[in-house]
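General statements about sequence and structure are easier to judge against a single worked case. For one protein, we set the task of working out the structure tokens from the amino acid sequence alone. This step matters because it turns folding into a mapping between discrete strings. The amino acid sequence and the backbone structure tokens for this protein are reproduced below.
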Amino acid sequence: MMPDVGGAPETWSTRFRLWRNRQIASSRFRQMMSRWPVTRWIANRKSNQMFHLVSGFVHSQILWTCVRLDLFNVLVDRCLSTNELAKHCDLPIDRMRLLLQQAERLGLILSQTNDRWLLDDAGAVIASDRGLALMVLHHQMFYRDLLKPDDLLRSQYPQTELASYWAYAHHQAPEAIGDENCAPYSELMRESQAMMTDCILGSHHFGNYRTVTDVGGGEAAFLTALGQRYNKPYLSLFDLPAVAKRARKRLEEAKLTQRAEVHGGDFSKDELPADRLGKDDCVTLIRILCDHDDDRVLRILRNLHRSMQPGCHLIVAEAMAGKSGGSRLAALYFSHYFLAMGSGRCRSTDEIRALLTEAGFVAFRARTSTNPLLATLVLAQR
């Protein structure tokens, strides 16, 4: 008879895992593992993984420093010496060399002969993507909110920097938010959406829709890219009035106003333009549901359902929890980000589907994107 823990019988896999944990916890067992070449490799790999857990913050601060000092941009298409970089970054040469060596250990830059340096793959990507660099700088706010992580877990309504920064997440009347509140996060969202947009447009064909309405579309970064790739769909954006005003300007700059319209309002209660939401039309929710708790998500979805006509397509695109490496990383990161933000969570495709079902949507399909770390797509119909 198997032992009973907490009123539930242990499975064989649970009993094996408990036995295995006892062996790994034994210093004698670990010493034995380190003596044999094959098991030594396993033991060392596990030790490295453990050290990654405690050194991750150091890694993030090295990256932040490189971005803050504009190191990657100055190395674009150039190979510079430590002395030249020290002058650019205003650092003593020995400290500059230390930072460069640390950045090389992280795969950000590469050392060359004669004490010279150039970009490695990751550094080249950051230098080419302003939004990614802005997100790196933005993370200092997140890290400060994590200084007392146990308090964060205990607090239902945390008083954090992220909660203040993302004004719409807690505002009682989101439609009343002014430009001074929405401008910082709107710019960050616009600049950081390039990779996300490429991921979505590379994972789904939008060319056959009559219209595409991006709900919570921010400063129209996604619609602008979609409009430049496809000629057919008419473009429609719905967001808070202050954000919608900024979106109009971006669409004008992209010369898309002849085939685009912008509406301001609260997408949890205000009706969307019904003539844009028929069976040949598509509504997109990009990085929207994850920002909100389940009750508000249901209000958003039910409001969309009321506005949409039967057969209208809906696409939810955001980072989702799952079993792939990218999905696991996304859930690991965003779960604590939303905890600090005080609203939202990283859901699985099944959880998204359950919310859509409760709101009245049908014909579900989950689609893995070109980069599951950035987004998974859930498709449904009114």
